[in-house]
Design goal:
By secondary structure, the protein is an alpha/beta fold. It is 46% helix and 20% strand. The protein has a seven-stranded mixed beta sheet, sandwiched between helices. The mean pLDDT is 94. It binds S-adenosylmethionine. The site of S-adenosylmethionine (SAM) has 17 residues, from strand 2, strand 4 and helix 4.
């Protein structure tokens, strides 16, 4: 019996796992996601990977509780080292920073050869993942943004293909920062996220203006001004194109 209801965040990740694909969920913690999709019959077999002892034991307990030990393998290890080449069709990595997710993918590159889809949910710095995908032959095919319990989450879905395709007709830096799909879709959560970032950056800018001049502060100020301009222009432009 499936005892755990998934959060909307993990439900959204699960929605993008194609029916019948084998799965590795890296950094699985309680293994809620693999248990849920296997229990639902969507995925025939899953690996739940965990690097830390506590979450690894939680995952083992959950899989036993749900009587899924035949179909969900809990393995302890760093990133993609827990999977064998060709073992899974789809990889999910959720609930970590974007830079960590990108480094897990980079360090396990040789395990990705037969993987067909990546579903990645960074808690911050989605730009690190978009940059890695662009440089590594993975095409971003969809993005989602959602708000849950006062936090905003982005979900990035990628397949092998033309990594530049989502950024055609777009300024690359803006696309990498905001997300080429999210920027067009302009969901309320997207607006909330970037209005919040703008407010935060403007506050930092004011503090820098009050601080004593230095080369380092001048550089920070310039970078912030550039980011503020980029985000304001992108958000205003897309809004003005709406019917
Ligand atoms: N994926 C679950 C979710 O989204 O709810 C759990 C997220 S939890 C905040 C992040 C988990 O990733 C932790 O349990 C942590 O031990 C694990 N983790 C961090 N770095 C990892 C790595 N390099 N390899 C495997 N697991 C890792």
């Amino acid at each position: 019996m499936n005892t755990e209801k998934l959060s909307n965040r993990l439900e959204t990740v699960a929605k993008y796992i194609p029916e019948g694909y084998t799965l590795a969920d890296i950094g699985s913690d309680h293994a809620y996601l693999p248990c849920h999709v296997v229990q639902a019959g969507k995925v025939p077999y899953a690996v739940a990977g965990e690097v830390a002892e506590g979450p690894f034991q939680s995952a083992r307990k959950q899989v036993q509780l749900e009587e899924l030990t035949e179909k969900v393998q809990v393995r302890k290890g760093d990133g993609l080292e827990v999977i064998k080449p060709g073992e899974v069709d789809c990889i999910t990595i959720a609930g970590m920073g974007g830079a960590l997710i990108a480094s897990i993918l980079e360090n396990g590159k040789e395990k990705l050869e037969n993987v067909k889809r990546l579903i990645l949910q960074p808690n911050l710095s989605a730009i690190s993942i978009r940059t890695w995908l662009l440089e590594s032959g993975w095409e971003l095919i969809a993005e989602e943004i959602l708000e849950e319990d006062g936090k905003i989450y982005e979900i990035l879905i990628a397949e092998k293909g033309d990594p530049k395709k989502p950024y055609v007709n777009d300024d690359l830096s803006t696309g990498l920062l905001l997300g080429p799909f999210l920027k067009k879709e302009m969901e309320p959560a997207f607006q909330t996220k970037w209005q919040g970032e703008l407010k935060n950056w403007k506050r930092i800018l004011q503090q820098l203006d009050r601080a004593s001049r230095s080369e380092e502060n001048d550089k920070k100020r310039e970078e912030l001004q550039e980011k503020i301009k980029m985000v304001e222009e992108a958000v205003d432009n897309e809004e003005s194109k709406r019917p």
